[in-house]
Amino acid sequence: MTNENKKMKATKAVATGLEGVIAADTALSRVDGTAGRLIIAGLDLPDLVASSSFEGTVAALWRTAGHVSDDQEVADGLGLARVDAFTHVPALLAASAGLTVTEALRIGLSLLADEHPIPAPLRLVGAMPVFVAALARHEQGAEPCAPDAAQGHAEDYLRMLHGSEPTPDAVHAMDAYFTTASDHGMNASTFTARVVASTAAGQVSSILAGLCALKGPLHGGAPGPVLDMLDEIGTPENIEPWLRNAVQTGERLMGFGHRIYRVRDPRADVLGAEVAQLSGNHRQRIAFALQVEETAKAVLKELKPHRPLDTNVEFYTALLLEALDIPRSAFTPTFAIGRVAGWTAHVMEQEQAGRLIRPSANYVGVVPDHLEMA
Prior knowledge:
This protein is 55% helix and 3% strand. By secondary structure, it is an all-alpha fold.
């Protein structure tokens, strides 16, 4: 047997992580990492957040994907979809023992039937805040709160989560966060959803797959560790020595650097503005975090002058969600509440393409002796 010595050699270079590989045409969003810009549904992100609610952003993404969607129709439809999703909460809670909020959310999406009088995109976007709020409250030993179809998506989520009416500032910040998180090019979870959609598996299966990809700590699980870092630093006098030691020992500073952006993440500026206008008991924490940010950028510039490492969206996401009293266990699922807008739009776009996504690979394994391979 000589098979172990007869192996194929790679014939083409592999783009590790599919870096630079164009997998689809999309009109939904463009990430400009060099200029630090994010365009969603034809609008620069700051302009989108200033001019549109999350419901309006959902409608704009769906229209861009070729699905005729009036803003008010989407808002009304999401209200009805939240009410419908609440009927699944008893079964969801019964099946979620021992699971994290993110893990249990997968069960919630799997409860949604492919065929239903309410269109799948509305049910998927509408179900997310209902399931996340119920699961987070269940984790804390509280009963779920029923949705209010007349409220906006962000307002209803905060009310269902906390069991009380949120302040206007909190609603505005939550709505801005959902819009900011709604889409971000061909990221890992979006690409996963599009791959599944290309098999004609349907919207529910595609979005469930996207959620599974988002669960990974290299994608949607980063905001929590930002707060862990702040907790570990602890005091203002410990900021610089802690950061220097972390950088010099090769630790990653959570909330800094990005795979795409070579400059400051534009989403950080949008969410930073929302954090700044929030009132409440978090001002001291926010001031401490801002001191950490400025010191971290100075330390990184000094110790890693050839690497463009600036603040990313996770830093201000962590501050915003903490200030809104979102439990850390619900950070990633709260991200999913916003990102499902983009996932559903990308699935629509992919379904229109009608082409199975089927990449190739270099075979570098053993070849049987009697075979000749080109």
